[in-house]
Write a structure and sequence with these properties.
With about 525 residues, this protein is of the alpha/beta class. It has 18 helices and 14 strands. The strands form 2 sheets. A 7-stranded parallel beta sheet has the order 3-4-2-5-6-1-7. The protein has a 7-stranded parallel beta sheet with strand order 10-11-9-12-13-8-14, with helices on both faces.
Length: about 525
């Protein structure tokens, strides 16, 4: 029994010895492997350092660039590890949105020195290519005044001429001097005749860059129109030190709050967002002397009027209010009596439709619409076209069908995410696509000069919508055509719109003369 115990002790001792030997051997192996790896990494690092030193010596011009890269790497957390999510959230910007940095304050560019006694200052401007297309009397029938006769600042005149404006249009000629005088204005003019510049120019002229608060508020009913208006403000005022901000729904409220911590002189906004900022006491409107309402008939609809009236309560009592639109319903009169002080009324709407837009209708059945649209695409010389539908679902279905037919097509409607709406608006305006299918979101104020064909795939229900739709072509006195698909159910609406607008919509001929819509 004792011998067996001794044998078991000896075997256990041998097993422990052998295991310890294996561990020591493996430990020595691992240690040698780590040393080898360490020596290899040191050699590679020395080679890298030598190569980098060689490159820096042979490329001295890139040394500052390499230093800047190292500085950027050293600032902030690394991209990997537990900081990865934080880094991406704080530094990754939405590059798909062309308007993502619209409200960022850019570092002030050195403005050119302006000699007030220089009589040849116009010759030094960078003027765009002159538009030689024919223009109708909607924009040419003026009294012959020039922009210099309005006593505008030299810096503002430089922005006006470099924008491509040569002489004021009738609405600009009638509005600018009255607005500069400080009167309330109720202005009615056709679509595409220069209403935006008619109120942007007085707003820029009356703004004092040395006063760090909001001095003019421009309200628009749609986000796309707000972006377009703010872009016009920045282009016309590029030689002024005026800070312009655009704020709309569907964008980051936090970014708008941070932007308003810095000076803003002109605020372009949709009613809901600016009212939210005013109630939070972020957008301080108590010193804002000018309120401009573009597309005022839409802003005074039941959807927006309560918001507009709340915004007015944040303004001083001696504010100036300017209303602009192509149509003024009965609700405008009640608003005018309550809020405007002896307004100066301007009406340039003796004829409601644009003279440069020729109107046709095609009488067909619902199932024939896509085939008729395909025929128009093959026969018309289209620069760009906008096709209107009456519902969101029909917009998407028609855009899909047009793409299947082999034509380039975008679509846009109010239920799309804001960044996608911005992308479509930006790309279509820059000519990335020829055809755009839209709901009534795009009927108001959108100014795209290349659009020469408008097609009402679904005929509108009222004359107001019809007037704004066809006004997307023939912008600023140019030529265009509007083609309406009319079914049996639409025949009464066709007759009603002709009577209310005092216009004639002709049957579409087999061949449309190109001189009616191609410059």
């Amino acid at each position: 029994m004792s011998e067996q115990k001794q044998d078991t002790k000896q075997t256990s001792t041998q097993n422990q010895t052998s295991s310890a030997t294996r561990q020591s051997r493996s430990g020595n192996y691992k240690g040698n492997q780590q040393n080898n790896n360490r020596n290899t990494s040191n050699r590679n690092f020395n080679r890298y350092r030598a190569n980098k030193k060689y490159n820096l010596q042979n490329q001295p011009n890139n040394s500052q660039q390499n230093y800047n890269k190292q500085q950027r790497r050293s600032n902030g957390p690394r991209r990997g590890g537990r900081h990865q999510g934080r880094w991406q959230k704080s530094n990754n910007q939405d590059t798909s949105n062309p308007f993502s940095n619209l409200n960022e304050i850019q570092p002030p560019k050195p403005l050119p020195e302006i000699d007030e006694n220089d009589e040849n200052w116009k010759q030094k401007l960078k003027l765009p290519v002159k538009d030689t297309r024919m223009k109708t009397e909607d924009v040419t029938l003026t009294k012959g005044n020039d922009f210099e006769e309005f006593y505008l600042s030299r810096e503002l005149l430089m922005g006006i001429f470099e924008k491509g404006y040569e002489k004021p249009s009738p609405i600009q000629e009638a509005t600018i001097p009255i607005a500069l005088f400080g009167r309330d204005i109720l202005a009615r003019a056709k679509n595409g005749t220069g209403k935006t510049a008619a109120f942007v120019i007085p707003a820029l002229q009356k703004t004092d860059p040395n006063k760090p608060y909001i001095q003019a508020l421009i309200l628009t009913p749609t986000r796309e129109l707000a972006l377009q208006t703010s872009s016009v403000c920045k282009e016309l005022g590029k030689y002024l030190n005026v800070q312009i901000m655009c704020t709309t729904g569907g964008t980051s409220l936090q970014d708008d709050i941070m932007r308003l911590m810095k000076p803003v002189h002109i605020l372009v906004a949709t009613p809901g967002r600016v009212l939210d900022l005013a109630n939070k006491k972020v957008a301080k409107l108590d010193k804002c002397q000018m309120l401009i309402m573009d597309e005022a008939d839409k802003l005074l609809s039941p959807e927006f009027q309560p918001l507009v009236e709340q915004i007015i309560t944040h303004l001083p009592k001696d504010r100036q209010i300017l209303l602009f639109s192509a149509t003024f319903p009965v609700t405008v009169k009640d608003f005018k009596d309550r809020y405007l002080n002896k307004p100066y009324e301007i009406n340039l709407m003796e004829e409601l439709t644009l003279k440069g837009v020729t109107q046709y209708y095609a009488f067909l059945e619902e199932r024939q619409k896509v085939h008729c649209l395909h025929t128009l695409f093959s026969k018309l010389q289209i620069n760009q076209s906008i096709i209107f539908c009456n519902s969101v679902n029909r917009v998407e279905l028609l855009a899909k069908k047009i793409t299947e037919l082999g034509y380039s097509c975008f679509y846009i409607h109010a239920k799309m995410p804001q960044h996608l709406r911005n992308r479509v608006f930006h790309d279509f305006r820059n000519g990335a696509c020829r055809n755009l299918v839209s709901s009534d979101l795009f009927t108001r104020g959108i100014d795209i000069q290349a659009v020469n064909v408008v097609i009402n795939f679904d005929f509108p229900k009222n004359s107001e919508t019809y007037l704004h739709r066809i006004g997307r072509s023939g912008r600023y006195g140019h030529l265009g055509i509007a083609i309406n698909f009319v079914t049996y159910e639409d025949r009464f609406n066709l007759y009603k719109i002709e009577q209310e607008l005092g216009t004639e919509i002709k049957p579409i001929p087999p061949v449309i003369d190109k001189s009616l819509y191609v410059a």
